[in-house]
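Q: Hi! First time doing this. I have a protein sequence and I read that you can turn it into a structure. Is that right? Here it is:
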Amino acid sequence: AAVLPVTMITNPRGLRWSSFVGLALGVIALFALYGYNVAMASQDPTTDAPQTWVKLSTNPEKFPRFFGISTFAMEGITVVLPLEQSARKKSSFPALMTLSMLTCGFIFGSFGALGYVVFGDKMHSSILQNLPSDSGYVDALEVVIALNLLCTFPVQLFPISEILDQWFLPPNASARRWWQLLEVRFILVLFITSVAIGVHDFGDTLSIVGGFSFMVIGVIVPVMLYMAQTRHEISTGGMIALVVLVGQAISVCLLVTGMSLYNLFES
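A: Yes, that's right. Below is the predicted 3D structure, encoded as structure tokens:
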């Protein structure tokens, strides 16, 4: 109910402050979790932080999660081309893109490694499930994360709601009634909420989303479009390398999605 008024915004510029506040809260939560993990790692093992980690996991059921969640973590790749087109200095974009990817990779990798060092093989799909429930610090952190989701959810929901508006509402935006917009967004929010409540394993869910959706729209389709546009310019060796890349991406996509679906329904 709290998110419905914000989802009624039909101009993307109206969501910029929601996006800014959400990103700021996300940064706060990230540093708070970093600090908590560093503090726990410097102490002796406890019940909440057993530090029972191993060098290599041999559990095949967890294998697809790495690829699926890693792909999901780089979901921003889907907006690379629009950002490049809107950049003022397009010549500086590749260097900025490389720096951004390296920074994100370092943050995600170090955060995951630090969490695994602290919680070991008892690590849950969401790190919040590993935190003690009787701590005021953790309670404040959960409030920050909840507000972050509240602010960023309408931004992520915006393109989906716009597509549904074009499908089910009058094509002329001025002819759409407010209650029609509310109805579409209410059904969409209700559906997403029901799925979130019904799915018991967030890790496998992220694996499915990352392994299928973002692998397809972030790797497979862009590479195939690039191959189609440059087929007369690219060398034979380069075309073969791209074909191999697409084949590997499709294989990983099918493997991760299939194993994640199996683990999700099996458990």
